[in-house]
Amino acid sequence: MSNVESNLHSQTRWQKFRASNLGYSFLSNKVAMISMAVFVAIVVMAVFAPLIAPFDPYDPRQQDIMNSEMAPIWWAGPRDFTDPQFILGTDAQGRDLWSAILYGTRLSLMIGVCAVALQAFLGISIGLISGYVGGRTDSLLMRLADIQLSFSTLMVAIIFLAVTQALFGSEVFNRYAIFFLIAVIGVSEWPQYARTVRATVLAEKKKEYVDAAQVLGFGPIRIMVRHILPNSVSPIFVISTVQVANAIISEASLSFLGLGMPVSQPSLGSLISGGFEFIFSGSWWITTIPGVVLVVLVLVINLLGDWLRDVLNPKLYKG
């Protein structure tokens, strides 16, 4: 074994990451590092919300209406009441806002990630079939994508959720709201993936390795999934990063309009909506603090997406 090979084997994963283009770009980009640190901190706090949060916002026994609209401990106006156990104050129902934000962030992230997973599954499947089969199938699927793109996500979601709420009633809708949101946000955004994957398939299916796989007798599904799809991984990662942020914004917008998560199951959107009517009465923290958390979360995800796009695109990456 040569010295070069022994050095490669002795390197740790961290050393290999630092030596790669991705690692070098990340460690030399302060915006990406700060964004990643903030994002990881938010995700960790959201995942471990039951351990970090001092109260359970889902448990009505831990809520006292007499504690409603308490100000944060660092804000004490002439007419405000504070309590050391409520760091960020309380909402109109007397819930601890810090606990509600932790649980709400976890719920918003869950909806965003699951909705993007559904988008990716539908879009990648349709894009592979459309690009590989071609012909009338390609034309039909792409026309469906054009029709889908002509409608905004919020417009489709508002119509679907409003009709669903009217058909099943508020009680059933609130019970399964998270599934309705994941479904409507996921189905509304699949063309973004389909068009990207289709473009990659059209470029790759004429190459020699695809012809060789066909000669060896491999089926179309194996060729699409095992040979062509890996060449679409980079743009899929970039799209997914942006789409997670868009899905979180969509969930917050729908919850703010009363078509998303109910008040009893706080997400960032429902927290902002629940405190909006109190913002001019002096209890600004009920809406403002969850709003700041939402803005920061979406901002760092978009910044990471921009950095990832620049690194994975050889035309944009300068080293």
UniProtKB/TrEMBL annotation:
It comes from the Bacteria. It is a multi-pass membrane protein. The chain crosses the membrane at residues 31-53, 107-135, 147-167, 173-190, 283-305. GO terms for cellular component: plasma membrane. CDD domains: TM_PBP2. GO terms for biological process: transmembrane transport. Residues 105-305 form the ABC transmembrane type-1 domain. Keywords: Cell membrane, Membrane, Transmembrane, Transmembrane helix, Transport. InterPro entries: BP-dependent_transpt_permease, MetI-like, MetI-like_sf, OppC_N. It is found in: Cell membrane. Belongs to the binding-protein-dependent transport system permease family. This is Peptide/nickel transport system permease protein. The lineage of its organism: Bacteria, Pseudomonadati, Pseudomonadota, Alphaproteobacteria, Rhodobacterales.
